Amino acid sequence: MMESKSFDSAPKDPLQEERDHLEYVLAQIRKQLKRDGTRLLETDEDEDADEALTADEIADATVAELARERFRKLRMATREPYFGRLDFLADGDARIDQMYIGKRGVDDPDTAERMILDWRAPAASLFYSFTGQGDEAAYESPEGPIHGQVYLKRNIVVRDGELQRVVDSYVHGQDTSATTDEFLLYRLAENKDSRLRDIVSTIQAEQNDIIRADKNLAVIIQGVAGSGKTTVALHRLAYLLYQHQERMSADRMAIFAPNAMFVDYISEVLPELGVGGIQQTTFADWALRILDYEVGLRDPSHRLRDWFGLKAAGARRAEYRDVEAKGALSCRDALEAFLKEFERTCIPEADFSPFEGHTLPLTDIVAWFRDEYSHYPLYQRRSRVLARVKRWMEIALKESSELDKKAQKRAATAKYRAYENLWPDFTPLALYRTFLDSQPGLGSASIHAPKKRGARYEVQAEDLAPMLYIHWRLQGVDPRDRFDHVVIDEAQDFSPFQIAVLRNYCPSGSMTILGDLSQSIHTYQGITDWDAFMSQFPEGHVGYYQLDVSYRSTFEIIEFANEIIRPFRQFREAKPVFRSGEEVVVEQVEWRTRLDQAVDKLSALHREASTVALLTRTEEDAHVYHHACLEAGVDAHLIDAKQSEYHGGISVVPIYLAKGLEFDSVLLVDVDEQHYDTSSLSAKLLYVGCTRALHRLHVHYTDALSPLIPRSDADERCGASG
Ligand SMILES: Nc1ncnc2c1ncn2[C@@H]1O[C@H](COP(=O)(O)OP(=O)(O)OP(=O)(O)O)[C@@H](O)[C@H]1O
């Protein structure tokens, strides 16, 4: 398959060996580019010559588009052709395979042999699963498992066609255990730019298992902050599309993200992995589209400000009880019972008699609706029944011996209209409002009537799942809206009912659901354990994975964050990768000068990093600090609930909107007992805030430090900060 060598080849200097190999590979890629380039030019000229394309020409154009795509991939490969090498001797083979692994597979133009193996190919799995514990290894191939021995695992950094680094993490017969993570640490220590990036060169074994999990599984990932959940889910999509090209397509996949800004933040990973056309959306945007914008969504900012504002936990909880109720599976069950009853009672209790002597008995209409059309969704059953009633009337009119046929038809049509109007409203909104009014503790008053003519009713986010459920029972699923695979990020903030609804649109159950219960800060709408989701999938069709290592932050930051959630035993602590950095700095500042000190600190942090964030508890505070930055001439971006783009640089953000993002350095302000009391919500907010930082974390407080920061720790660190 790839280049092979016999066992006894003399050891070479790794750098020189890789330099030679790179030179060969780049020369071969350029040769291929030249051939493809000439061919492309020819096809482009042909296309211009004739505008009306025949079927053959369309087929040619498709081939030409594929060729152009290949050309683009080859051009990318000249910059970074591969990132790793694995030497593997399969049992029974006489020669070792040298597999060079890259983002895209490339063949040698002279021999047509694989020169670079795509990272998603079965054999490439070895590069990730092999951790150097003994040299035995195996991977799953389409022909069954292939066992053998690993001789070398090497990380190679090529940038813009230049060899920059070679690190061997395993060499057969040598003790390389100490260097195993060197390459990963080197990658993690880099400053990040403003977007999430791919991790193909350093995917870890436990992440690889998730990426390559069976396509028919609903994969549920509980992963601590920074464990790579989002990144892994995006890589899984690229993997599924590569492995199951015939059965899955990008335009039938979707990523559900918590907000539009997060969609922007992750938008570059898939194109980097060579994948385009996957829908990236929020549950609300998707739901409103499926509902054909029958309703609008109330601006969520008010609720966010209220929930994360400073008030007693008890008071907060009571106001949000109906949100919790509307997201529960018991709500789905009550709604299903309501719809069953509606189905039973919706047929008008009347025969249809369009003119004297002709009557269509109720029993016939009922039989059509309940039996003949029972396999259609409700709305279609109603439409079919009414169309049949109309047809029956038209036949009756034709057969009638009435002399004034026109008058008879007019009268009959009026009767038909009146009959049609006897049927109740079959829209999600009408049914949902009736349902709410029938439920103790709920009511349709929560749905806001339009303020002016032509405007729509407005609902809250938690109303969308029940409305979609009704829509599904009324209309079924339009095949264009059916998913092959769905990714749900920050799933701890999804309700069980939302997952149930999404399942209707993804009948294969092929889903990747990821989140972290320690970060569930929207507790009024989310879940407290994963059983609420797992139980929705049949046994054997769901896989639960746990990611406990945090790759994002330094050892010191993770230790600090863990201490905050330690008293709350139900939360999982993150295990740090041993990447040591600066101590976390906890600093008391004067109330009077807190804004100036924060601005100074931000500027200082920004001198050493490309992305920096000042994190506040409330949105109001974020406005105040942002204003202070601008007054001081510091170019900072305020991120509020309406933001749809992430700019990088300096951001000022309430913590609840920073979830999912990361920054080289973070300054948490106002970490006092008034802003962060001993409640679990405060602990989770602080935990989320701390774990946004990759390299540096600073904490400012005035007056009394939040009791969530252990005092001994704070004293020590205050001392350290001087
Ligand atoms: N195997 C890896 N190699 C290199 N970097 C990694 C690896 N896994 C994760 N990372 C990095 O760790 C950071 C966190 O990843 P990601 O945002 O996907 O984590 P997450 O679990 O979704 O975090 P959160 O729950 O905080 O949103 C990113 O910078 C990502 O590139």
Tell me what you see in this structure.
Helix 17 (about 430-440) packs across helix 18 (about 465-475) and helix 22 packs across helix 23 (about 620-630). By secondary structure, the chain is an alpha/beta fold. It is globular, with a radius of gyration of 31 Å. Mean pLDDT is about 90; it is low at about 720. The structure holds adenosine-5'-triphosphate. Adenosine-5'-triphosphate (ATP) binds near residues 199, 223, 516, 551 and 691. Adenosine-5'-triphosphate binds next to helix 4 and helix 6. Keywords: ATP-binding, Helicase, Hydrolase, Nucleotide-binding. Pfam families: AAA_19 (PF13245), UvrD_C_2 (PF13538). This is AAA family ATPase.
SSE arrangement:
Layout: E1 3-5, H1 14-49, H2 55-79, E2 84-90, E3 96-102, E4 106-107, E5 114-118, H3 125-129, E6 136-141, E7 144-159, E8 162-171, H4 182-188, H5 205-211, E9 218-223, H6 229-243, E10 253-256, H7 260-265, H8 269-272, E11 279-281, H9 283-290, E12 295-297, H10 301-307, H11 313-319, H12 321-327, H13 329-345, E13 352-355, E14 358-360, H14 362-372, H15 378-399, H16 405-422, H17 428-438, E15 457-459, H18 464-475, E16 485-488, H19 496-505, E17 511-515, H20 531-534, E18 542-547, E19 549-550, H21 555-565, E20 575-576, E21 585-588, H22 594-608, E22 612-616, H23 619-631, E23 636-638, E24 650-654, H24 655-658, E25 663-668, H25 680-690, E26 693-701, H26 711-721
Parallel strand pairs: 3-5, 9-17, 9-18, 10-11, 10-16, 12-15, 16-17, 19-20, 21-26, 22-24, 22-25, 23-24, 25-26
Antiparallel strand pairs: 1-3, 2-3, 2-7, 4-5, 6-7, 7-8, 13-14
Helix pairs in contact: 1-2, 5-6, 9-18, 13-18, 15-16, 17-18, 18-19, 21-25, 22-23
The protein binds adenosine-5'-triphosphate.
Adenosine-5'-triphosphate (ATP) binds at residues 184, 187-188, 192, 196-197, 199, 202-204, 207, 223, 225-231, 516, 519, 551-552, 660, 662, 691.
